[in-house]
Amino acid sequence: MLSEYVVEIFEYMKQLEVAAMPNPQYMDSQKELKWHMRDILIDWLIDIHNKFRLLPETLYLAVNIIDRFLSLRVVSLVKLQLVGITSMFIAAKYEEVIAPSIKNFIYMADGGYTEEEIQKAERYVLSVLDYNLQYPSSMSFLRRCSKAENYNIQTRTLAKYLMEISLVDHHFLDVLPSQVAAAGLYLARRMLDQGPWDANLTHYSGYTEEVIEPVSEMMIEYLKRPVKHEAFYKKYSSKKFMKASCFVKEWMGRHYDM
């Protein structure tokens, strides 16, 4: 039944992703924050997300909440971590069947906040965002793209790692989630020598190679730099994720002067 409406659903997701985009220049309005502080916060949240074994959608939504909130409000440095942990708390309640308790989040923040502080922050963040948490993440678009290659597990896992670069690197803030998904899959296929980006992949992703190749180059530029986000790299060096980060690092060493 749902398959009858797949085109309409895909088009609706494309509309939603545009509406949920943050201001890519929001740091210009922040008085105490810098981009590297934001990126460090996201790496810390990736560690928390991994320890809680939450859904990928929860992480993507949490980061989107942070960026949208910081696009609308000036936040002091001492409140940045509170914004981060609160955003993950909100995202988990929205995406997970059974979300971690508020006490779990307090523990992960080393007891730096009380239940009341997080609950108050939760109400404020939601009100600023007008209670709108609709956000089709890159994961949603990857599922559709993967249909073009019969959901190959190795390609999908590698693509997930490459897509997650868009969370820790603020340069991707103006790139649509659907483009991140297509570029992640495109680069994963390139690394695995899986052939050209054909008409089938263009159909399911909605993008030609000419559109997504520049986004994949942004991923390459990130990978050329020394490992900066330890939690992110460590997460994908595990067997659970087929040691994707290790594979990519080795591939980069063979193909680029690093």
TrEMBL record:
SUPFAM superfamilies linked: Cyclin-like (SSF47954)
Domain of life (superkingdom): Eukaryota
Matching InterPro entries: Cyclin, Cyclin-like_dom, Cyclin-like_sf, Cyclin_A/B-like, Cyclin_C-dom, Cyclin_N, Cyclins_cyclin-box
Cyclin-like domain location: 43-127, 140-221
GO biological process: cell division; mitotic cell cycle phase transition
GO molecular function: cyclin-dependent protein serine/threonine kinase regulator activity
SMART domains: CYCLIN, Cyclin_C
Entry keyword annotation includes Cell division: yes
Domain Cyclin C-terminal: 136-250
Keywords tagged on the record: Cell cycle, Cell division, Cyclin
Keyword Cell division: yes
The protein's name: Uncharacterized protein
Species name: Rhizoclosmatium globosum
